[in-house]
């Protein structure tokens, strides 16, 4: 792995407005103390498995799916507020680059951030990129296994 000591910042164009559904959900999830689950959304098979696993984890109590896009680009929204104020935030990254975890470590205190590297659990498809390189049934099964592993790990915390 090529390591770099260069940090960088990214400027995001401001938008006036919020997502109506996101406002409702963000306010409700904050009020109910739900724990946001954010995942890799990458275009490769590893990102897809992390994304599907996050959707499965978020169906269980007390978890709910968080929107990283809104968190990062609409900082005044209810979704962003919920994620930044939640007692814990679950991050499921696709593999060792930990793209989301590296970003969120700059936004959320370390003791509130619980990170998972899905690939370190299932250890497959390291030479594949495209989502369709793995049959849908198989990738859904792997994502289910990842979700079970994460929920079991969270039960111990």
Question: Descriptors for this entry?
Answer:
single chain, 157 residues, alpha/beta, 4-stranded parallel sheet, 4 strands, 45% helix
Beta-strand residue fraction: 5-15%
Mean pLDDT: 92
Biggest sheet features:
4 strands, parallel
CA gyration radius, whole angstroms? 16 Å
- By helix and strand content, what is the structural category? alpha/beta
Discrete helix count: 7
Number of strands: 4
Domains counted in the coordinates: how many?
A: 1
How far is the first residue's CA from the last residue's CA?
Answer: 31 Å
Poorly predicted runs of 5 or more residues: none
Dominant shape: globular
Kindly report the spatial arrangement of strands forming the biggest sheet: 2-1-3-4
How are helices and strands ordered from N to C? HEHEHHEHEHH
In which range does the helix fraction lie? 40-55%
């Amino acid at each position: 792995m090529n390591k770099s000591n260069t940090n960088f910042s990214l400027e995001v164009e401001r938008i006036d407005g919020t997502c109506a559904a996101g406002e409702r959900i963000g306010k409700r999830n904050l009020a109910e103390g739900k724990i946001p689950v954010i995942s890799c959304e990458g275009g490769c098979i590893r990102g897809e498995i992390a994304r599907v696993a996050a959707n499965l984890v978020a169906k269980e109590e007390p978890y709910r799916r968080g929107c990283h896009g809104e968190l990062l680009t609409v900082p005044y929204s209810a979704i962003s507020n919920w994620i930044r104020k939640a007692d814990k935030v679950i991050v499921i990254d696709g593999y060792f680059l930990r793209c989301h975890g590296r970003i969120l470590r700059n936004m959320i205190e370390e003791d509130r951030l619980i990170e998972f590297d899905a690939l370190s659990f299932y250890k497959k498809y390291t030479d594949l990129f495209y989502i369709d390189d793995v049959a849908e049934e198989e990738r859904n099964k792997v994502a289910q296994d990842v979700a079970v592993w994460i929920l079991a790990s969270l039960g111990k915390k």
